[in-house]
Recover the amino acids of this structure.
């Protein structure tokens, strides 16, 4: 039987169909354009190639095209009779994941990878910061992802794609010193991989290497296709580094050119959380509110994400609603999430509604209420999925609330407890706080 590049069997007698499938698989893993077209070529050659439909479904779901993704997965299920056990498990995993059965999908993932550890598309779907495990609502999922990739590492050896994923997982688990040589090796082996750039962005953020991150991302993005699905998100990473370096003009230009909804090539959730996070964190850093940009994001979020979905995206939609003073939208989404949580259909439970109350209080200037809501939740931010860089939105908002409420000792304690080595805090007032900390007491 023919095999893919990870030596897993592909149920086709056509080498041309296999080759087109492998090309699509590679493009899907590296986040380069053309994966769907490659899977379609494979299916044109061999209409019975079920896993090509699965690969296509994964891309479509990532792009926010849920109806088309489910149709592609249904086609795979219709063709599943006679496929190998590995391919059957592959199809079943995506069926569970796409139908919201997160716990069952994770359970199947571990059983499947115990037998076929090199099923990389499943690893890619589950083990990124916003993947299946990351969105499971569990505290401790960063440690879980890192442990999973620790166990898989011997099976991948010097594979450039796996090293890029592994580096991100290690950095997210606080093992930055281990992450850096892995991402450096991945970059050396193959830079035509958006996850190598993503890994560099994360490792540089977690190690405070703003200059290294800016230099690499600026150069790398110049060679990445403008319609590549990670162009917007990597531009967001670069914009955060520019913001932290005080390069406000450069950060604003990145927003206009690559992060704003009409310029960002990613899916709806990614557009919303990248755009909202940049605008909000810019304000925390002391820059003026961009009312037209907020209006555009608010309108986009309302039309593209009308119902609750993933916790990280919902938090950012709620934040846009709060900025635009849309009390009706805030109330509706919060009630919908709470209802889903009561039914056991929202992985992070009531965490997002509780968190959102803190952001709403902050936006209306009620800083004591914001602190009361955010402080007890700050250590549980893994529950909404996302990376530590994305979670800094929560920590920085709490810090700014402490500063605005003149609760300086609590602000100092929050800064003291910040994970060591991470990028400098971009919150207006922290420099004054540091100076006041070193001033002798007047008593």
């Amino acid at each position: 039987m023919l095999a893919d590049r990870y030596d897993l069997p592909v149920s086709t007698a056509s080498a041309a169909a296999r080759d087109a499938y492998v090309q699509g698989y590679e493009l899907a893993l590296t986040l380069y354009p053309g994966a769907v077209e490659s899977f379609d070529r494979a299916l044109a050659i061999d209409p019975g190639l079920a896993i090509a439909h699965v690969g296509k479904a994964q891309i479509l779901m990532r792009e926010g095209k849920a109806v088309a993704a489910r149709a592609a997965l249904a086609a795979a299920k219709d063709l599943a009779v006679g496929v190998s056990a590995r391919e059957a498990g592959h199809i079943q995993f995506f069926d569970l994941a796409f139908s919201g059965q997160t716990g069952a999908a994770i359970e199947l993932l571990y059983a499947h990878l115990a037998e076929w550890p090199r099923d990389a598309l499943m690893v890619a779907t589950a083990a990124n910061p916003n993947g299946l495990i990351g969105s499971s609502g569990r505290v401790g999922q960063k440690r879980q992802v890192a442990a999973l990739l620790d166990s898989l590492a011997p099976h991948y050896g010097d594979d450039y794609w796996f090293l890029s994923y592994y580096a991100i997982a290690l950095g997210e688990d606080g093992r930055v010193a281990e992450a850096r040589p892995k991402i450096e090796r991945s970059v050396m082996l193959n830079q035509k991989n958006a996850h190598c750039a993503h890994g560099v962005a994360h490792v540089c953020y977690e190690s405070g290497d703003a200059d290294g991150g800016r230099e690499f991302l600026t150069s790398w993005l110049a060679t990445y296709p403008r319609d590549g699905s990670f162009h917007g998100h990597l531009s967001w990473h670069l914009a955060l580094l520019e913001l932290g370096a005080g390069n406000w003009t450069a950060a604003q230009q990145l927003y206009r050119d690559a992060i704003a909804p009409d310029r960002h090539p990613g899916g709806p959730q990614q557009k919303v959380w990248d755009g909202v996070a940049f605008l909000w964190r810019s304000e925390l850093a002391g820059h003026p509110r961009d009312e037209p940009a907020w209006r555009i994001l608010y309108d986009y979020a309302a039309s593209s994400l009308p119902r609750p979905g993933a916790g990280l995206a919902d938090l950012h939609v709620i934040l846009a609603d709060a900025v635009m003073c849309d009390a009706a939208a805030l109330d509706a989404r919060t009630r919908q999430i709470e209802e889903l949580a009561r039914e056991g259909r929202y992985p992070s439970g009531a965490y997002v509604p509780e968190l959102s109350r803190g952001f709403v209080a902050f936006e209306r200037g009620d800083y004591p209420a914001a602190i009361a809501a955010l402080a007890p939740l700050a250590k549980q931010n893994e529950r909404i999925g996302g990376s530590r860089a994305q979670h800094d939105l929560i920590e920085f908002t709490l810090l700014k609330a402490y500063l605005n409420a003149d609760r300086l000792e609590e602000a100092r304690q929050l800064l003291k407890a910040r994970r060591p080595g991470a990028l400098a805090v971009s919150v207006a007032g922290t420099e004054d706080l540091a100076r006041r900390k070193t001033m002798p007491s007047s008593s």
